[in-house]
Specification:
This protein is of the alpha+beta class. Helix content is 21%, strand content 18%. α2 crosses α3.
């Protein structure tokens, strides 16, 4: 039986994270990087230091107080465009656009923290940064789509309610199996 909001593997990730805490009694919550033990949560769940920390209030992401400056800057930049429409190619001719596609939106947010100098399409973001999931920021990319998870919240142009298009923050996770995980160094 699955709980609402948990995707396949979510229980296993939570169990492994809890096991790590139990087997390392000297490991305090402050020693675990935000996002290092991210656990998918139900829509009505409260985020805390134990489950990534970023909050979502009326569609706006609120960074955790202890987040690195670059994480706060990525969240701030993403919040700036979170109500823009989806426009194919949006955000590629210029960082400022009336709307954004998936890679334009992710690129704009990363550029807000000076983590990306030039725009890239989703296939290029498959090779950007360092391999694997980051502690704070993970970009999931393939040849067709890209989204990112920042301090436990997903920034994506997919999965919006009916009639809504464009980049938005989401609590729900998607299966990253068909995506390559990349992250900015140190984050």
């Amino acid at each position: 039986m699955r709980h609402a909001g948990l995707k396949k593997g979510g229980h296993l990730a939570a169990l492994l994270f809890a096991l790590a805490l139990l087997t390392c009694p000297g490991l305090a919550a402050a020693d675990i990087p935000w996002g290092g033990g991210c656990v998918p949560l139900a829509e009505d769940a409260t985020r805390s230091a134990a489950n990534c920390g970023a909050s979502l209030v009326d569609g706006e992401a609120i960074p955790p107080p202890g987040a690195p400056s670059a994480v706060k800057q990525v969240i701030r930049a993403a919040n700036e465009i979170r109500h823009r429409s989806y426009v194919w190619g949006g955000g590629h001719r210029s960082w400022l656009s009336r709307g954004y596609d998936c890679s334009g939106a992710v690129g704009y947010a990363l550029h807000g923290a000076r983590l990306l100098e030039t725009t890239m399409v989703s296939g290029q973001l498959e090779y950007w940064g360092e391999a694997g999931a980051g502690h704070w920021i993970t970009v999931y990319a393939n040849q067709e789509h890209v989204y990112m998870v920042v301090a436990g919240l997903r920034f994506d142009t997919r999965g919006n309610p009916a009639g809504v298009s464009g980049p938005r923050w989401h609590r729900g996770w998607v299966e990253p199996r068909k995506f390559t995980a990349r992250h900015p160094g140190g984050l």
